[in-house]
Amino acid sequence: MAWCEGLCADIANFENDPELTELGKRTKAELGEAITNRLATAGDDGSAISYFARRGATHDEIVNNVRLMISGGINEPRDGIGLVGWVLLSRPDLRAVVENDSARMRRLIEEVFRVYSPVGTITRQATRDLELAGVAIKAGDLVSGVLRSINLCETHWTNPTEIDLDRREGEHAAFALGTHRCLGEWLGRQVVRVGVQRLLERFPDLRLDPNHRVELRGFEFRGPLSVHVLTS
Predict the structure, then answer these.
(1) Separation between Cα atoms, residue 4 and residue 226, nearest integer Å
(2) What is the pLDDT of residues 21-62, one digit of tens each?
């Protein structure tokens, strides 16, 4: 978890905080050393690292892909489970719907992803000169798209901040759009769905602790800082 936090702190360091930059460098170095040591003993054990090694991936390719898996495979599912769990515990009406029809859980997850957008931005490089919404963009410029802004755009969504399980206005952009959309989106959805369903099945009387307010925080990675719960 420390590696994940170190990597994500560096990725989301939009203010160029030198301490976060140093944390990112230290984390990358520690992780790179651990992966290198693991590669030295990699066999055919079914792990992602052994899969990459057996198919001829270079050392740098393996290290960079494992770093990506850690930052994207831990942070976002954690925030997704926290967000969906919090919404269900704070909205008895929605909880009743998904408990009466488990298939509606998938629709709920999509709406939670859209409204709260656990990942903040996507970065693209312009391939040509163009003008977008009155702003001149040159070929080669880096452009950052704010996913939550897209997902709450009033020109596209009706009552955009409302969770509507019957919404039929097309797909959201929580996993980005186009050819560079998130490769792990299918797995991410299933991790969140199974995690929340198992939690509620195991603790059917789960409820929010009224003495602790749930606070959402973060821009590039957004989710609840904590969700305090009670059981009978």
Answers:
(1) 17
(2) 999 899 999 988 998 888 888 777 788 888 888 888 888 998
Tens of pLDDT, residue by residue over 59-99, are: 899 888 888 888 778 888 889 999 999 999 999 999 999 99
Kind and range of the H or E run holding 24: helix 18-40
CA 95/CA 106 separation, integer angstroms: 13
Q: What pTM value is reported for the model?
A: 0.85
What stretch of H or E contains 111? helix 104-116
- SS3 of 83, please? helix
Q: Which residues are within 8 A (CB) of 141 and not within 5 positions of it... i.e. 6 or more apart?
A: 125, 126
Nearest of 79, 27, 69 to residue 182 by alpha carbon: 69
Phi and psi dihedrals of 131, rounded to 5? -120, 130
Question: Please, which contacts does 28-33 make with residues 24 or more away whose CB atoms are closer than 8 Å?
Answer: 28/67, 30/3, 31/3, 31/7, 31/63, 31/66, 31/67, 31/70, 32/63
Q: Which amino acid is it at 204?
A: P
